[in-house]
Amino acid sequence: MASPKKRLQGLVAATITPMTEHGEINLSVIGQYVDYLVEKQGVKNIFVNGTTGEGLSLNVSERRQVAEEWVTKGRNKLDQVVIHVGALSLKESQELAKHAAEIGADGIAVIAPFFLKPWNKDVLVNFLKEVAAAAPALPFYYYHIPALTGVKIRAEELLDGIQEKIPTFQGLKFSDTDLLDFGQCVDQNRQRQFAFLFGVDEQLLSALVMGATGAVGSTYNYLGKKTNQMLEAFERKDFSSALNCQFCIQRFINFVTKQGFGVSQTKAIMTLVSGIPMGPPRLPLQKASREFTDNAKAKLKSLDFLSCTD
C-alpha cells in the first residue's frame, strides 16, 4: 500500500460493513467490494468502521476483523486504508489504534467521545493525543461530526497548535455544513500539508472552492464515478461541468433525504447498485423499507445511474 508520507486526497469511500440476515458481520464479500470500488467507481481510498460502517455498533473483536479484512483484500489494489478507531473508552480506542498499525493500515481517525464529552479543546486534544500515541507511526486524522457527537468544539480552534501536541496529526474529516469553520481551517493552516477531507457529499463542490483536498463519504460507494467527474472538471477549471455534476448528485441525495436517508438506506442502495449483498443494519437501526428501495431504484434509473449529461 501507499507510503504513509503520501497525502490522503481525492475520494475516500466510507465503507459499509456487510452483514448477514442475522446481523453478523459478513467478511466474505469484502474482496468483491474492493474490486467494485476500484473498477466500477474509480475509488481507491477507504475509511473503515466509521458512521456508514456502523463502527460504533460493532464490538472491538468485530472492528478488528473488519479492519483486517479490508487491509488484506485491499493490498496492492487500494491506495490508502484509514481505520476509524474512535470509541467511548480510551482503552478500546488505543487497542484499535495499535491493531490498525499492526495490520498495516495507512492511517487512523477518531471522533470525539460523545457520552461523557470533552468540554473544551484542551480536553479533547488530550484524549486524541493518547489514542494517537498508541500508533506512533500512523498518520492521525480527527473526525469532526458535531451533529452526531454533540461535541461542538470548532475544528478551526482544535487545529490551532495541534501538531505540536500530536506530531502524527495529518488532517481532518470534516462532516459538518459550517463552511466558515471549514474555510478557516484551510486558511489558517496553509503552511501545513494537512488533508482537508470534506464529509458532506451534497456540498462537496462548495468545499472544493474553499480548499478541500479530498472527501470522505458514503455516496462514493456508488456515485464515485460521477463525483470523480466533478473533481476532474473542477481540476481543469471547467466549473460549469463541475456544477452540473454536483446538481446531478444533489438531485438524487435530495430525493432520498426526503424519504429518510441514513446508514440503513445506504446499505439498501449499495446492494441494489453493486449487486453485492450488504445485508440489514444492526439494531437500533431498522432495515430500509421495500418502498424506499423501489423509489431509490427508479430515481437512479431516471438519472441514468447518475451519469447525467454534462
TrEMBL record:
Cellular component, GO, one term: cytoplasm
Alphabetical GO biological process terms: carbohydrate metabolic process
Keyword Lyase listed: yes
Top-level enzyme category: lyase
Binding-site list for pyruvate: 52, 216
Pathway membership: Amino-sugar metabolism; N-acetylneuraminate degradation
Cell compartments where the protein resides: Cytoplasm
Entry EC no(s): 4.1.3.3
PANTHER family for this protein: DIHYDRODIPICOLINATE SYNTHASE, N-ACETYLNEURAMINATE LYASE
Subunit structure: Homotetramer.
Protein name listed in UniProt: N-acetylneuraminate lyase
Organism whose genome encodes this protein: Pteropus vampyrus
UniProt gene name: NPL
